[in-house]
User: Fold this.
Amino acid sequence: MMPVLPAQVGCGDHYGGVTHLATGHADNPGSTDLHYSDPPSYLDWSDSGRGSGWRYLSGTVLILLLWFVGQVFVIIPALLALGGDFSPDGTFTTPAPWGNLLISLASFIPFFIATPLIVRFLHGRPALTVVTPFLRLNWRLIAWGAGLWLVPTVLLTIVSLLIRTGEAPRWNYQPGLFWPALLIGVTLLVVQTSAEELFFRGYLLQWFRKVTGNVWVMAAFSGLLFGLPHLANPEVAGSSGLEWVPALLVYFATGFALAAVSVRSGTIELALGAHFINNFVNIVFITAENSALGTPSLWVDGAPGVFEAAAGSVISAAVFIGLAWRFRGQGRLRPLQPPRTPTPPTPASPPAGWFPDPLGAAAYRWWDGSRWTEHIG
Assistant:
């Protein structure tokens, strides 16, 4: 039976299905009373701090701009250090067999930094609120996310290989490629997958929350926006005719499942674990011949069809949602921060002088610049 993770909230209170309060400004607890939803969610922070819609729009543009510009300061030095070069088609190559993987994942470092940076300085709230409403990351929940995604992935891969009648995956162990890729996988891969989750399941879902609270509508938006950038991946770009539709469905289903579970659990921690283990399996164990991450894995599958991949992704996503549906975030809640509104300017007092007597005792009374005096005329 799947465990239900209780959420510990507030000042030592336990979440148990009742409405509760998280009080006070983050810098001044007790200053006001603000309600979390039931159960509490990181989406409750969408209006906190400076949370207007135009800030989310400008924040999205700034995050992408910081990522694209920042890549220049990562890719070029890394290419020079590895003795690589750009190809005529705009791609890059390196002498080291693992060099392309290293540079590809390192290019996500600016993306990983940009989202928390925008949350902190453009929206004026703690960077961790794009992940969870609690004060600390829940590493146990991240591990659960990885495990719950791994189960259907392994089972579906085995079933797919057993019923397939075409070419079987080939053994691909290359020590000079595999072990560096494994090291890269447990370090920079965390940056790549977390960067995408912070933006797609964290920042963008908080923006969508201002439009709708429907979990399935939010998941569909997230899945679509997650899938569109992946149209440039080799396994999608190489599709012919309408094959790009099931190829896109592979990424849509993944983004949909990660978003649905994030909205349901009130934190993106399950998605962080699931996304990491999905890409880790592709790098280390088995991957497609034309994978965007290259082919450093132990097995390479040269015969997966787009329809087979799409069906597997949809089934895997559905199973993951079912397994993770009862999970909730847990920890001590961070006090909600009220929206910041501009303070209206204080009207300036008129300068000292004679003015019509407001008391009606005389025609004029002297105003000294701050108060009425006893002088009349």
